[in-house]
Amino acid sequence: MRPYQICTKTIMDTTDPNIVFDENGISDYYHNYVNNILPNWHTDDAGQQEMFQLADKIKKENRNKDFDCIIGVSGGLDSSYATYLAKEILGLRPLVFHVDAGWNSNQAVSNIEKLLNGLNLDLFTEVVNWEEMKDLQRSYFQAQVPNIDGPQDIAFFSAMYKFARKNKVKYVLTGSNYSTECCREPYQWGAYLGIDKKFTMGLHKKFGKVPLKTYPILDVFEYKLLYQHILGMKVIKPLNNFSFIKNEAENLLESKFGWERFKHKHHESRFTRFYEDYWLPRKFGFEKRRAHFSSLVLTGQMTRDAAILRISKPELDEATLMQEFEYVANKLDWTKEEFQKIFEGENKTYLDYTNNWPLISFANQSMQKLGLERRLLR
Questions:
Q1: Is 68 in contact with 59 (CB distance < 8 Å)?
Q2: What one-character-per-residue DSSP string does 228-259 give?
Q3: Domain span holding position 208
Q4: Burial, 132: exposed, middle or buried (Cβ in 10 Å; 0-12, 13-18, 19+)?
Q5: CATH code at 285?
Q6: Domains in the chain, number
């Protein structure tokens, strides 16, 4: 077994089995940030001007339409601030799109309402069929794989892109950014690179019972090749062209709209919060917070010492975590004892099931070589 080691610049460690360290104990996450991201990340006047020019182009092309772009919002920080930026700074008229997969926290719902009322924007909500969502989530749990948040992520992105295509919306804005996400967690931690329809449908065929008649799922190659390269859909990340400091953005949203900050990233979904704070670290030993905090360390928003101290204890207290364990079990129609039995089951990986990983991995490596993706993907 590989001896434990932690990066001397970030808090990424050997729980990523493919992490590479130099002679000074500095990981490839740090070197990738310095060599690939920083030189190509422009939040200065030039970067902002580039985004303003693009916004003018979007407005001109869509001046006779009810809205000129679409943006997905979860109630969390990144998508909320991107929505504010699009409307108030860039002067766009976005249709705000939300996918309700059955796990919204009350705070997330409240944040969306406050933000859109303050910005005077319309909201379109697509509600995923709960019986189908529940059955697919149960399938992921029974498969014993790390990436049990897959069904939610797939629904969020697939529903929005399908809606955009159906309504001939060319421009899709996202809250994806370098400032809080420059250090991407490895796929072993459950961060599967793209939507692998073969993997998902294979799991459901093996463990599922409810036909997925309406569940939105868009394979990564259909989205990348058909939607983007053939139909010309453009995905835009405006947060990368402006200063986006987590604490400052939270303060602004709070003061302007009464928006409320979360304890940690992704806590707008009760399922994702449970998955990242309880299931993944306790069952598999993976802490996505390592990547989240390392991103903030690299971008100067958090000290490494503060990150080490923060990750030494859970975000939520034990009583809350156990309450969430029971809540998730009940919502998925398991008793607490049945859910505990699954938790104690043999851990599996995507390699134990049919998948398109070799092709997806090759495509991502090609994107990195072509400079289309700057973050370290593996």
A1: yes
A2: IIIS--EEE-GGGGS---HHHHHHHHHHHH--
A3: 41-369
A4: buried
A5: 3.40.50.620
A6: 1
Predicted TM-score (pTM) of the model is: 0.93
155-169 CB burial, b ≥16 within 10 A, e <16 = bbbbbbbbbbbeeeb
Rg (CA), the chain: 20
Residue 191 lies in a domain: yes
Q: Taking 80 as the threshold, does the pLDDT of residue 240 lie above it?
A: yes
Give pLDDT tens digits for 304-334.
Answer: 999 999 999 999 999 999 999 999 999 999 9
| Residue 274 forms part of a structural domain | yes
The amino acid at residue 117 is N
257 within a domain of the structure (yes/no):
yes
**pLDDT band, residue 356 (cuts 50/70/90):** confident
CB distance 176 to 78 below 8 Å: yes
Average pLDDT score over residue span 341-356: 94
Within-domain flag for 8:
no
Task: Count, in order, helices (H) and strands (E) of the chain.
Answer: 15, 5
Question: Exposed (0-12), middle (13-18) or buried (19+): which is 259, by Cβ within 10 Å?
Answer: buried
185 CB burial (10 A radius; 0-12, 13-18, 19+): buried
H or E stretch covering 366? helix 357-369
